[in-house]
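This entry is listed below:
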Amino acid sequence: MKKCVLFFIFAIFFFLFSGNLIFAQRGTARGETVQVRFASPLPRNSDWGRALDRLAAEWQRVTNNEVRVVINHDGREGGESTMLSSLSSDSIQVALFSSAGLSEICPPVMTLSVPFLIRNEAELDRVLDDVKPILESRVRNDLVVIAWAKGGWVYVFSKEPVFTPDDLRRQRLGTSPELREINQAFRTMGFNLVEGDMNSLGRLLANNRLDAIYMIPAAIVPLQLHRYLSNMLEIPIAPVMGAIVMNRVTWNKISAAHQQEIVRATGRIAAEFEASNQRAEVNAINDMSRTGLTLNRLTPAQENIWRTELETAIPSLLGTVVDRDMYQRISSILERSRSQSERGQ
C-alpha cells in the first residue's frame, strides 16, 4: 500500500481564491450522469473492499443511475496526502480516509487519537455523539464528509515484551510519516520513532532496524508483520477514525434528493464497515495468538504509569499538535462519564 507525503500547495491556493466561483454551480441537467472515481487505500479482496463495492452499487441504485462509481482499490491512487490533492484537483471525486488524512481535512479529528485518552468503544461512542457536529463544522469548505466510521484501535506490537513506557523507549518504534500528530505525541514522551511506509516495515523488521510498531491488528496479518513480532501490548493505544469524503464540485452536481439518498445509503454501509472492523480485529488477534503471539496484559499499576506519562506530555502539545478546545471538551466528557460509572459501581 503506497504512502505519499506531499500535499499540493497549488490546490490550496486555487480553492481559496476561485472556490466561490466553482462551487456556485449546483445540480445536473435531467438525465445527466455524474461519473465518480472513488479512491480507497484498502485491499479489494477484504471485507472492507467488498463493503465499498456494495456502496458503489447502492449509490447507483438510489440515484436511479444519476451517480455511477468506479472504485480504485488497493491504494492505486496513492497515499492519503496524494488522494487529498487529487480530490482538490478533481482527478478523483471521492476517497476513503483514515485519521491521518482526516487531520488535513478537519484538524481537530486527530484529538480523538491522542494516545491513551479514549479507552474503549463505549467511551468513543459517547465522545462522538457529542463532538461529531463540531467536527463536521470544521471540515474544509471544498469537501463534504458523507459518512464517518470507526476504523479500529491501534496497538503496540514488539519483538520483546512491553509492559511500561520505559520498556518501549528501549525499542525502535516503527510508524507511518503520515501519523504526524500521534508521532509528535510519542516523541514528546521520549520514544525512538523510525518512520517508514507500509511496504518498508517488514524489511526494516527483518533487518533488525525496527523492534516494534503500532498499528491496527487487522493490518498486521496481510502485511505478514507478525512473523517478526511475537508480543502485543494488550491495551488499546488510540482509536482510528475513517470517513468517506467527496469534493464539493461533484457533490453540487448531484440533486438534493439524491444527496439525501446517498447519505442514508452510505450510513448503512458505514455501520457494516464498523462491524467488519471489529470482527477483523478480533480475528486477527486470535489468528496471531494461534501462531505464537503473546498478549501482554498490564496490571492496574502499569496502566496508570502509561496514563500518567500522557498527562505529563499533553500540556506541551496543546495548541500545536493537539487542538486545545477539542481536547478539553473530550476530557470533560470522559471525566463525567467515568465519574458516573464509578458512582454506579
